[in-house]
Amino acid sequence: MNARAHIGVTGLAVMGRNLARNFARHGYTVAVHNRTPSRTRALMEEFGHEGTFVPAETAREFVAALQCPRRLMIMVQAGAATDAVIDEFAPLLEPGDMIIDGGNAHFADTRRRETDLRERGIHFVGAGVSGGEEGALDGPSIMVGGSKESYAALGPMFETISAHVHGEACSTHIGSDGAGHFVKMVHNGIEYADMQLIAEAYDLLRQVAQYSPAEIAEIFRTWNKGRLNSYLIEITAEVLSHTDADTGRPFVDVVDAAGQKGTGRWTVQTALDLASPVTTIAQATFARAASGQSTLRTAYRPLPGGMHIPKSRSEAERFTSQVEQALYASKVIAYDQGFTMIQDAALAYGWDIDFGAVAGIWRGGCIIRAAFLDRIRTAHEAAPDLVSLLAEPSFAEEIAAAQVPWREVVATAARRGVPAPAFAAALSYYDTLRADRLPAALLQGQRDYFGAHTYRRIDRQGVFHTHWGHPDRPETDV
Ligand code: ATR
After folding, report:
1. Cα–Cα distance, 147 to 133 (Å, whole number)
2. Do residues 130 and 143 lie in contact, with contact meaning Cβ atoms separated by under 8 Å?
């Protein structure tokens, strides 16, 4: 067989098949392989006419079909399946070849695999591919890790098949080893937060302002014309307009729990390790978990809640505008938390990340694509060392303008007994970071009391311990 394929894709389930088709539709010759050959045959039968495919039944045939240096893309389940496929193909490759994992791997696995394969001269590239089934086919957002050298060989291909916004490709080299999968993971964490904030906004409009799902859909359509413009706001209006065919009731009245596949959870677990306070993302993840706690919810359901004070039409309209402001402010915080977490990881893992480029490739192809990512990109480009979005004047001004409504919405939720964990977490995060002094002073005193953990003073250098309960013994500098 001639080694003529520009790239090979192994793992031809939904994502792999669509990505292979995307490459082929853009003129690349694509070798295709799957553990179970019937999937390869099915792809050829259904979509073989879309471009130039080289079907391969065995691993050797597949590798032999690839141009050197070989680009071999794995699209199988994360975890053991990915390791199994790497173990199968790596012995057939030569130094300089590239294995690309386009699955949803945990970044720590990607780091491990990259180290192992680097020792054998093979480039291992963890690439986060966002946009689901449709994105894989029509243009995903691609967050690429691994060596710069491998991006030089792969980048043009990824940039060709990725989504494009104003002519710019939504693919970039994020950083070495696991940086691509890390940023993809945080993307998903931000996605969880964004979705939860939107869901809380809906719940408040429904329970406090007493609007129907169809009316709220219209509100979201209006918001989608402004600064909240995004894919998630757009599909929210569609979901809220949807009526269940069986019962004739709004879709949102026949469902009551949300699932998760794990990447949001990984974001929170990793954030704990990095001491990165992604509180809005964490609350969004826990909110999904709480929705599934049916026994616990049954036990809590009869308990008393807040007061309901009906709102007049004009009050409801005013509240709607307040919710828009609270949603926007909380969303800025959620994204800021995500970027901060990436900054913390960059420091911990030695990644040199261009944050403007990250915001840039999230503008298209992926689930969190949103108009305001353009502004986030501009902010990071103007100030590459930007510590927080809130350090950028136009975001700071918007947050300043949202103060009264943001606080009013969170207070209303508490008074009325409507859960708004992500809104409240975002506001608390904001208040925590802007506080002149924090009650951490008291915590550290408690730690020193029971565990002699010592403390630092704000007025003198050194590490101190107080002999609690012995007022006669002076504080010691330890
Ligand atoms: P998607 O999310 O795109 O639908 P997935 O569930 O992440 O897909 O992965 C499924 C793919 O992984 C399939 O191509 C599967 O191969 P089979 O069609 O033979 O089942 C592949 N896969 C899973 N475990 C594998 C393994 N140990 N070795 C090789 N391929 C494997």
Report:
1. 27
2. yes
Active-site entry in 114, 159, 184, 392 = 184
Q: Please check whether residue 274 is in contact with residue 341, taking contact to mean a CB–CB distance below 8 angstroms.
A: yes
Dump the DSSP string for 113-126: HHHHHHTTT-EEEE
CA of 130 to the centre of ligand 1 (A): 18
Burial letters for 441-473: b for 16+ Cβ neighbours within 10 Å, e otherwise? eeeeeeebeeeeebbeeeeeeeeeebeeeeeee
Q: What confidence score (pLDDT) does residue 73 get?
A: 98
The ligand 1 site (C-beta within 6 Å) comprises 11-16, 34-36, 39, 76-77, 81, 84-85
Q: What is the pTM of this model?
A: 0.96
Q: Which of 9, 21, 38, 77 to mutate to test the pocket of ligand 1 (most atoms within 8 A of CB)?
A: 77
123-157 residue pLDDT tens: 999 999 999 999 999 999 999 999 999 999 999 99
By the 10 Å C-beta count (0-12 exposed, 13-18 middle, 19+ buried), 225 is classed as exposed
Place of tokens 């009551």: 256
Strand duo 464-465 + 476-477: pairing: antiparallel
Q: Model confidence at 438, in pLDDT bands (50, 70, 90)?
A: very high
Rounded CA gap, 190 and 185, in Å?
9
Tens-digit pLDDT profile for residues 251-280: 999 999 999 888 889 999 999 999 999 999
Structure tokens at 34: 């799957």
